[in-house]
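2 proteins. here.
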Amino acid sequence: MNPALRLVRRVFDWRIRGVRCVELIGVVCLAAVMVSVYIVKTAAARESSEISQIEAEIRQNEQRVRLLRAEATRLEQPARLEALSRQLGLEPVQVTRRTDADGLSELAAANQPAPAPAAAPAPVAAQPETSPVSPSTSAQEGPQ
């Protein structure tokens, strides 16, 4: 018989307290597989809950976007804007007020407000000068 075969047969026949060594190795491997499957399952459940939370946030954000778009559409209605402009006394821009890029500097210079005059400092009123007299010295002097 081959020496390698004898060694394999010896390992399979080796017994510890009546239990073959191969069976012990098999049980240990099976326990390791069970623990690893449990760990993977709990990690997958955790990831699944995170995914569902993120999906809920996405749905909430989509709802907010829809509401904001609806509000923007309402605020940008031409009839509403016209009513607001009438309240403020605004009128449409006339075609004659159009200019090109070269004319912008001329328009800016023409539309600048005049500088406000510098405010002169207010004159300070002269206050009568009084000599400081302490109460203790005036009491000591008394009537003379």
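next one coming up
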Amino acid sequence: MKTKKTIITLFTSLFMMVLCFASTNLSAQAKKETAKTKECCMMKDGKMMHHKDGVTMPMEKNMTMKNGTVCMVNGECVMKDGKKMTMKEGECMDMNGKMDHCKKQDPKATIYTCSMHPEVTSDKPGKCPKCGMELVKKK
């Protein structure tokens, strides 16, 4: 009887360790994915672009950030206090309203684009958000 209790206790302990490891691993993967797919607006090639879920496409409407800053399709940003600034090439603003310089993309990285909408790019295969066509590797 005592041996049976010991086996059950060991099995339960092992099971709890496996669960803890699995949840830690999933949590780390989720954080990695979140960091990789940061949503922001940016000035790229003289145009305001919206980056979300690994896809970059032209901004079609003004965006209001969480801090009240409004980024307009012409590149002008109006802060909550009324101050205005114009985004320069390579600058990004995340959804919290924090300015940053966009990270340069690895030149070896594979880029996918829409054959009908070349301004739409992605770091992974998928569908064009404008027309639904499959994204193809950029040459």
